[in-house]
Design a protein that fits this description.
The complex is a heterodimer of chains A (579) and B (374). In chain A, the strands form seven sheets. In chain A, strands 2, 3, 4, 5 and 10 form a five-stranded mixed beta sheet that branches. Chain A has a five-stranded antiparallel beta sheet with strand order 12-11-21-20-19, with helices on both faces. Chain A has a three-stranded antiparallel beta sheet with strand order 1-8-9, with no helix packed on it. Chain A is α+β, with helices and mostly antiparallel strands and 579 residues long. Chain A is built from 22 helices and 21 strands. Chain B has one domain (17-366). Chain B is 70% helix and 3% strand. Chain B is built from 15 helices and three strands. Chain B has helices spanning 10-17, 20-42, 48-72, 74-79, 81-98, 118-136, 142-160, 165-181, 186-206, 209-219, 228-240, 253-256, 268-301, 305-329, 347-365; strands at 100-102, 105-111, 114-116. In chain B, strands 1-2-3 form a three-stranded antiparallel beta sheet. In chain B, strand 1 (100-102) and strand 2 form a beta hairpin. In chain B, 51% of the residues are buried. Classes of the chains: A alpha+beta (579), B mainly alpha (374). At the A-B interface, helix 1 and helix 2 of A face helix 8, helix 11, helix 13 and helix 14 of B.
Chain lengths: 579, 374
């Protein structure tokens, strides 16, 4: 007990030490408060009424996008915004004055509208908010010289985007718009601010990092009247880098005229490095209103348009390739030694598979055909047979080797993979096994097979350049190398011979009359939603190929009459430009 | 053998037998908190009333917890001390694995629409643990010291992993205060402090970027005048511009114009100081002093050594957060995210403080009156 008491008083002593210690520290706090609030109170009071830290932002222009010859596709033009700082703009009366001053210059503005807009833009008290935008130099000059113009607002130059090519290159270039709050937070390290422009689609999106100009930012302390007292920190501006594309605007214009008002695609590509010269998808749209500000109604109409003008059919449209696909089973059969160039098949106009009849497009049949003649006249029965001899698995495997069912890797967003199909796919999708009929349809580019026009172009580029699957690209700088498929030269030669004959004397004659020798293939693909799609793929010049081109006309009918001339003319233009 | 008083019914307990000064200080502080939160939330986007309502609700919850703890008594809770500490450690592990990341640190668990910070609950468990352990195994040699440090250190390590530097420091203060109050020989305490000071340069290495920035900005706010330094500058302006009598309730301009970030939590004292000035600040300090004084008084009155240690670590916890919260608002200490007791908005903090004060009152109540002390 005694030990307990002794210990108790010892601990009590310690407790009172603690009490004293606490007392002194809290006294220290009180003295600090005395210092800040009483001794230096006036100083801080004045700081709080003025509280003037301001961030001044000066935009930098975004990099220009040009075509291969330097023709402008996207340029930055300078306009003016009127900016202010939220603490100065809190008062409703002040907003009314600002609105009045703007209305005098013919700029529609209301106090409520301004208040709403400022609330939406608010980020911090020291970050500027835009009160009016897209003003000309003239408007700014008369605003500033107006004696009623509030002194705490200032004009600041801002760069806006203009697309001189309009709808012609919309699917390639894309457009920019104001950055959304989601985009700001998902790209937090890149420090976007409310009001910045960011690429929304196309090249503007994919090459955003290169094109973007970083604004100069300076944090300053200003006095009550707004004069600079001192600079706190400064980030220098960074100009956006210009971007040159491989696109040829002249050829693109040619493609637009050739398609006329029809829905479809024209794509042309350099066969050796994959540089895309033409990428036109119709119908198209003008990106300029989307960048400058379009009403919700107009935007809705554009999105809901049943013709889907915003869809880039060249890379996002997946279609059955039809007879243009026949080059693939032809090549596969030769390399797999399933047929020789001289193996014949008799075409009576149909083939019986199991208990189904598959017809050839020519009612009476083609008679005896071999590889070259079957390609020339696009005999379906020959390819039905070849497909069956190859078997589904090898057919699918070869398709995959040539890029079917994969994105090409072009520097545009929204690429579709198309559909490779195959046994496992059918099992997963339909819980059914693969039938011979499916192989037969696949061999002539119908059935479950779906390809984008760009994928098809890539296949033919491989045939033309000796077996390299290139990576298509639009930006002219560094680009990824293609993959060598190690295709035997002889097999390639025979397939190319067949396709030369297509243009010389076969279904593709209409493409060869424009002054340049074309090698290619027609296609007329059955379309479950309407008329057949018209296809033609070809490369030129035949003896020393430089470019491949694809034309697809949705619901256009026969590839031979509708699509072939388009490819012929586009190739002639491109080859002609070179000379 | 300790004398155990007849505890009587709960109302008697709450309002007659317990230390009424302590209760008074607590309630007034809480009410001041409600007013300050209301004023602070006027400057924020969200509905001002919502924060006050939630704080008041948590206040009621905490008061109920306080009453329950008072009724149950600290003695019974001390019996469970090791187990409660174990549960707290488990909760700390859960929050590391499942917790939400808020502002860079994983410190919350959410369930049934409620969010809880286990580090707050751990403070209570730690206080109980220290009281029980240090009295069962008083520190007479280095091995005892190592034992208690290892045991208490587990919560420290887990909280540092979140990373919650502020709570880690609070735990350290609690451990130190408990050791001191338990009669640990001075040389061990000096040695411990010395070791901590020596470890600081190494600790810098382990700090994350934003934590280092907070320290640098505390030394010179203009290092980052638009980022971390901004808070410091603006808070000091708020406090200083309160001057003698303040700008008046709801008239503070710094918080309304959005200059003060997190005005309802971290910088609640800045809001208060701007609106009630030096006189208000001194009154607040007086209330806190009364609170801490009475907490320690309960320990002095107690004949139970465990009660003394329990009370000491709780006093250390509250004292440190008061010191840090107010100093931070003046720019005299780095920002840590620790709530100012009873004033800052936050349910977990109110709840743990409620339980802690319940323990303190229980220590006070379960002992004879001063004249009986022998």
């Amino acid at each position: 007990m005694t030990r307990d008491i002794g210990r108790r008083s010892q601990l009590n002593l310690r407790l009172s030490h603690l009490r004293v210690f606490v007392g002194y520290t809290l006294l220290g706090l009180a003295l600090s408060l005395l210092f800040f609030q009483v001794l230096r109170g006036e100083h801080y009071s004045s700081l709080s009424t003025q509280n003037k830290i301001r961030v001044i932002r000066t935009s930098s222009p975004r990099g220009e996008i040009t075509d291969v010859h330097g023709a402008p596709l996207a340029v930055s033009v300078r306009t003016f915004d009127i900016v202010g700082y939220p603490p100065d703009l809190k008062d409703a009366r002040i907003l009314g004055e600002v609105a009045a001053a703007l209305q005098k210059q013919g700029i529609p503005a209301t106090a409520e509208g301004l208040g709403e807009s400022i609330r939406k833009q608010y980020w911090a008290p020291y970050r500027p908010v835009t009160v009016a935008s897209n003003l000309t130099l003239g408007q700014v000059a008369s605003l500033v010289s107006d004696p009623f113009f509030p002194k705490f607002l200032s004009p600041t130059p801002v760069f806006r985007r203009v697309y001189p090519a309009g709808a012609l290159a919309a699917h390639v270039v894309g457009y920019v718009g104001e950055v959304t709050k989601d985009e700001i937070s998902s790209r937090a390290e890149e420090k976007y601010r409310v009001g910045d422009l960011i690429g929304k689609t196309g090249i503007e999106l994919v090459h955003e990092g290169t094109l973007r100009g970083l604004a100069a930012e300076e944090a300053v302390e200003v006095d009550a009247v707004g004069r600079r007292r001192r600079s706190l920190s400064r980030i220098p501006p960074t100009k956006g880098q210009d971007l040159r594309l491989t696109l040829d605007l002249g050829a693109q214009r040619e493609a637009e005229q050739l398609l006329g008002g029809k829905k479809g695609v024209i794509v042309a590509m350099d066969i050796k490095d994959g540089g895309v010269k033409v990428l036109y998808s119709a119908p198209s749209y003008d990106p300029n209103p989307l960048t400058w500000g379009v009403s919700a109604g107009e935007w809705g109409r554009l999105l809901k348009d049943p013709d889907r003008p915003m869809m880039n059919r060249a890379i996002s449209g997946a279609y059955p390739p039809g007879s243009t696909f026949k080059a693939v089973p032809a090549l596969a059969a030769l390399v797999e030694k399933v047929v020789t160039p001289h193996t014949t098949v008799y075409c009576p106009g149909q083939l019986k598979v199991g208990n189904r009849i598959f017809r050839c497009w020519k009612r009476g049949g083609h008679g005896t055909v071999s590889l070259v003649t079957a390609l020339k006249d696009s005999c379906d029965v020959y390819f039905y047979q070849v497909g069956l001899w190859l078997g589904a698995d090898r057919l699918i495997e070869w398709s995959s080797r040539l890029g079917v069912g994969q994105v090409t890797g072009i520097d545009l967003p929204g690429e579709s993979r198309g559909n490779l199909a195959g046994r496992e796919w059918k099992k997963r999708r339909f819980s059914e096994s693969w039938f011979h009929g499916d192989t037969v349809n696949y061999s002539i580019g119908q059935g479950f097979l779906l390809m984008t026009p760009l994928q098809l172009a890539r296949v033919y580029a491989a045939l033309a350049n000796g077996g390299t699957l290139v990576v298509p690209h639009l930006s002219a700088g560094e680009h990824p190398r293609g993959t060598d498929l190690h295709l035997p030269r002889e097999a390639l030669g025979w397939v190319r011979k067949g396709m030369e004959e297509v243009v010389k004397s076969g279904t593709g004659r209409a493409s060869g009359v424009y002054g340049v020798s074309v090698t290619g293939k027609t296609g007329t693909a059955q379309n479950p939603h309407g008329d057949d799609h018209a296809w033609f793929v070809g490369y030129a010049p035949s003896d020393n190929p430089r470019y491949v081109a694809v034309a697809l006309v949705e619901g256009g009918g026969h590839g031979s009459s509708v699509a072939a001339p388009l490819v012929g003319q586009v190739l002639a233009y491109l080859v002609g430009v070179e000379r | 053998m300790k004398l155990r008083e007849e505890k009587g019914n709960i109302l008697r307990l709450l309002f007659v037998s317990s230390d009424r000064n302590l209760l008074f200080a607590t309630v007034v502080l809480f009410l001041i908190g409600l007013f300050s939160i209301f004023s602070a939330s006027l400057g924020m986007e969200k509905n001002a009333g919502a924060f006050v309502v939630r704080q008041a609700t948590w206040g009621l919850v905490s008061f109920s917890a306080y009453a329950v703890v008072l009724r149950v008594g600290y003695v019974r809770l001390l019996e469970l001390a090791y187990r409660l500490y174990g549960i707290a450690l488990i909760l700390l592990v859960i929050v590391l694995v499942l917790g939400h990341v808020v502002r860079g640190s994983q410190s919350w668990i959410g369930f049934a629409g409620i969010r809880l910070q286990p580090s707050e609950v751990t403070k209570v468990a730690l206080a109980l643990l220290l009281a029980k352990h240090l009295c069962r195994h008083p520190v007479k040699g280095p091995r005892d010291l190592a034992g208690v440090l290892a045991l208490a250190g587990m919560s420290l390590v887990l909280v540092l992993a979140q990373p919650d530097l502020g709570s880690a420091i609070v735990f350290s203060v609690m451990i130190l205060t408990a050791l001191y109050a338990a009669g640990t020989p001075a040389r061990y305490l000096v040695g411990l402090c010395g070791a901590a000071l020596l470890a600081m340069p190494f600790a810098w290495h382990f700090l994350k970027t934003y934590q280092r920035l907070r320290l640098m900005v505390f030394l010179n706010p203009y290092v980052d005048p638009l980022g971390a330094g901004y808070n410091v500058i603006q808070s000091r302006i708020a406090v200083g511009s309160g001057r003698l009598v303040g700008k008046g309730f709801m008239m503070g301009t710094q918080s309304k114009l959005g200059f003060l970030p997190e005005p309802h939590t971290d910088f609640i004292f800045s809001v208060f100081a701007e609106e009630f000035g030096f006189l208000g600040g001194v009154a607040l300090l007086a209330l806190f002093s009364l609170l801490l004084w009475r907490i320690i008084a309960a320990g002095v009155k107690s004949r139970d050594l465990r009660g003394k240690v329990l009370v000491a670590s709780i006093a250390g916890w509250i004292w440190f957060q008061v010191l840090e919260g107010m100093a931070m608002s003046m720019g005299l200490a780095p920002v840590t995210g620790l709530p100012l007791p009873f004033l800052s908005y936050g349910g977990s903090s109110l709840l743990s403080l409620g339980i802690a004060l319940g323990l303190v009152q229980s220590v006070f109540v379960e002992n004879p009156r001063p004249d009986d002390d022998s």
